[in-house]
Write a structure and sequence with these properties.
The protein has 44 helices and no strands. It is mainly α. The chain has a domain of 83 residues. The termini are far apart.
């Protein structure tokens, strides 16, 4: 309307004055790009108009809003007169384009021209000093503010607080706040936001209560920060209080604040409340739909996520990149490759395929669905690669057991001048350990130290796992000591290192020490501690740990239940082990294997075989460990036919090639059953070099059957394999006692 009236004014021959031009240029600044504004610019630069620096400031502001930095610079250079507003607009434009150093240079030039900054400019220029490299400049600005008396301005103080916080100087930021006589909601918001940024959510919520005690009314930004803190802590109680407080104080629940409430309930796993909060929003934006999709994907509600995506489209909203990242995450959770491929086609239509985050989501999906080639093609199609995309493709290869290819990709990443982060180093160290490339892993450790990653918990955990598997406890402890603030995963990795080196007693001591530091054990921690209890046969600690696990409901988790079942198996308490197994709602192949092993180790071969049949009915594919324990169970129970069946099933039904351990179990099975010909035939035909264990099993059978000739043959093999082992001599001497042989 304003533009229409302005054009009509010109048509009627009425020349606008400078005030009119300022108003109309301000109206044009809301256009992107400012097409009408550019036309007016051309007109007013003619000799007809006598414009002043205020009009030029309006032009400068218009182009800065359109993010056209070149036009802003040209207008600034051609201005004969500049005031504080001119410089402020110019500095702001540079900051919006990420040109922090140039902004600081312009700030210096301004002062050289004799123009002193005001509070508005000071609050803007401090954002240029929000990195540790520019902290020195920030401190100089702070001194200048004190000298000019601008420090007391509450908006300047908020900017200073953010500057120190973003530079990693939280103490200095808090000091700025404590020295403020006037504290408005903006200043409180900055303080609360910084503490959430530092992961100090409890402190942030404490400051929120302090704000209320000072009789200040929180605004929507305050509520959004506090809801974020509650989400981080998964604190439904506090989150609910803040939600109700926002409603009671009459705070307008716009889309952004309402979406924050939805997000908070979702992070607290309160899905029903999250959905209710979503439905109560007056309008739904793409962002709010994305939050709901993310929550559903995170909690494994994949079908609901697909339905929600359809509902979003019915409302006429166009999905953005974030939408597809969440919906692909839902496909990932349910291994829904066909649905994922459909969304991939949609992504191509929308032109999002080259986006880094969408590409990473697609790579993760294809990798989860065992389609590494598709993941690699997706990676190669991406126009731009960042450290996250490289990490994803390297991790995909590691998860598929292609560790050497993963290391080659890591080298290629370095050649492409992409700097690795702590996650990259962690992934590549894991790949080295899997391939027993210890020297390469050690070099990566040195590189991590040079880059300052050693004290990072992510890299440190991988290093701890590496040295634990190598049995180098001293190196593991050295890595742990380098941590600035060890988290529960770091402690768990240290406990695991002690388990690997057989120090179960120290595991329990360190576990109690971890608890005294206020760290809460996670699933993997309990698994390690239960292993230690099993090694030590420590019933007292075991019962204490089991009570904690059951209070938290973790006994229903398949990983934890596996450890408990294994523990009960070692103690011979089959009833308790079976009870734990029966209560787990989602049983994986590892848990089934654990309960089969429990029965096998305690001499209940038939029960183990029955459980295998149940496992097949459950639709799970047994792994090599499952078959080892089944064959061992058949061996101890004398179930020859069942053993034959399991070995044949492994090869023909499941396409799994037997390992030397499977052959050893089968040899023992035939030997115990007196089928020595079959056992010896198996040794001669196995596609591996027989181990000492293989021959020992057959030799023990020869002793039981008083088969002197066969025993002599086997003894000859054993003496060649292991001269220092006295056991074969003892067994062979026992065979001789039962008879004589002429061929030794």
């Amino acid at each position: 309307m304003a533009l229409h009236l302005f054009n009509q004014m010109l048509c009627e021959g009425v020349l606008p004055d400078n005030f009119t031009l300022i108003f109309i240029l301000t109206a044009c600044s809301h256009q992107a790009p400012p097409i009408e504004g550019r036309r007016i610019h051309v007109r007013i630069m003619s000799d007809v108009f006598k414009i002043d620096y205020l009009v030029m400031n309006a032009l400068l502001n218009m182009y800065s809003k359109s993010r056209n930095l070149e036009d802003v610079r040209n207008i600034f250079i051609n201005m004969f007169e500049r005031n504080i507003v001119t410089w402020t607009v110019m500095v702001d434009a540079l900051l919006q384009h990420g040109c922090r150093e140039h902004a600081l240079q312009f700030f210096g030039h301004m002062q050289m021209e004799g123009i002193f900054p005001d509070a508005v400019l000071f609050s803007k220029i401090t954002t240029a000093c929000s990195e540790s490299e520019t902290l020195f400049c920030g401190k100089q600005l702070h001194v200048s503010l004190k000298e000019m008396g601008c420090e007391s301005d509450v908006f300047v103080r908020a900017a200073l607080l953010n500057m120190y916080g973003n530079c990693g100087r939280l103490e200095d930021a808090c000091e700025v706040f404590s020295q403020s006589f006037e504290r408005n909601v903006v200043l409180w918001n900055s303080l609360i936001s910084l503490h959430i940024q530092y992961g100090l959510d409890s402190d942030a919520l404490h400051f929120f209560n302090c704000l209320l005690q000072e009789s200040l009314l929180p605004d929507r930004v305050t509520y959004m920060h506090c809801l974020s803190g509650c989400a981080n802590r998964a604190d439904t109680f506090e989150g609910r209080k803040i939600h109700l407080l926002a409603l009671n104080m009459g705070s307008h629940l716009d889309v952004m604040l309402g979406t924050s409430i939805v997000f908070m309930y979702g992070k607290c796993s309160y899905l029903e409340a999250a959905w209710q909060a979503f439905e109560q929003l007056h309008e739904h934006s793409t962002v709010s739909w994305n939050v709901v999709l993310g929550i559903l994907a995170q909690h494994g509600e994949c079908d609901k996520a697909f339905h929600t995506f359809g509902a979003m489209q019915k409302q006429g909203l166009i999905p953005d990149k974030g939408t597809f990242v969440h919906i692909l995450s839902a496909c990932l959770g349910s291994s829904a490759l066909s649905e994922g491929e459909q969304f991939h086609s949609y992504i191509i239509e929308m032109g999002f395929e080259s986006d880094v985050m969408v590409g990473i989501a697609l790579m993760n999906l294809y990798n989860k669905c065992c389609s590494l080639n598709s993941a690699l093609k997706m990676f190669e199609m991406m126009q731009e690669h960042n450290v996250m995309s490289w990490n994803t493709i390297v991790m995909a290869h590691v998860q598929c057991g292609k560790n050497r290819e993963a290391l080659q990709l890591f080298i290629k990443m370095l050649y492409n001048e992409v700097l690795p982060d702590s996650s990259t180093i962690s992934i590549t160290i894991d790949a080295c350990v899997s391939e027993s490339l210890i020297e390469t892993a050690s070099l990566l450790h040195m590189y991590a130290v040079e880059c300052g990653f050693e004290s990072d918990n992510v890299t440190g955990v991988s290093l701890l796992n590496m040295y634990g598997k190598l049995g180098s406890l001293e190196d593991a402890c050295s890595v742990f000591k380098a941590f600035q603030t060890p988290d529960v995963l770091s402690w768990t990795a240290l406990l695991t290192a002690y388990i690997f080196t057989g120090n179960s007693l120290e595991v329990l001591r360190l576990y109690h020490k971890m608890e005294l530091k206020g760290l809460v054990a996670v699933k993997t921690t309990y698994v390690v501690v239960l292993d230690a209890c099993a090694d030590l046969l420590d019933l007292g600690t075991m019962e204490e740990i089991l009570i904690r696990i059951m209070i938290k409901g973790l006994d229903l988790d398949a990983t934890v239940a596996t450890a408990i079942v294994s523990l009960y198996g070692k103690f011979g308490n089959l009833t308790a082990g079976r009870s734990i197994f029966n209560n787990v709602p989602e049983r994986d192949v590892i848990l089934w294997t654990a309960v089969i092993t429990m029965y096998a180790q305690n001499g209940h071969g038939k029960e183990a075989a029955c459980l295998f049949s149940e496992m097949q009915d459950y639709g799970l594919v047994p792994n090599s460990v499952t078959f080892i324990n089944l064959l061992a169970a058949c061996s101890h129970a004398g179930l020859v036919e069942e053993g034959h069946y399991f070995l044949a099933s492994m090869i023909w039904e499941y396409g799994t090639s037997p390992l030397v351990e499977h052959y050893d179990c089968a040899i023992d099975l035939f030997g115990r059953a007196g089928l020595l010909d079959e056992a010896e035939c198996l040794i001669n035909r196995m596609p591996f070099s027989p181990r000492v264990v293989s021959f020992m099993a057959l030799m023990a059978a020869c002793r039981a059957q008083a088969d002197l000739d066969r025993g002599a043959r086997i003894a000859r093999h054993l003496f060649c394999l292991d001269l220092e082992n006295s056991v074969p001599y003892v067994i062979f001497s026992n065979i001789i006692l039962n008879g004589r042989t002429d061929d030794i």
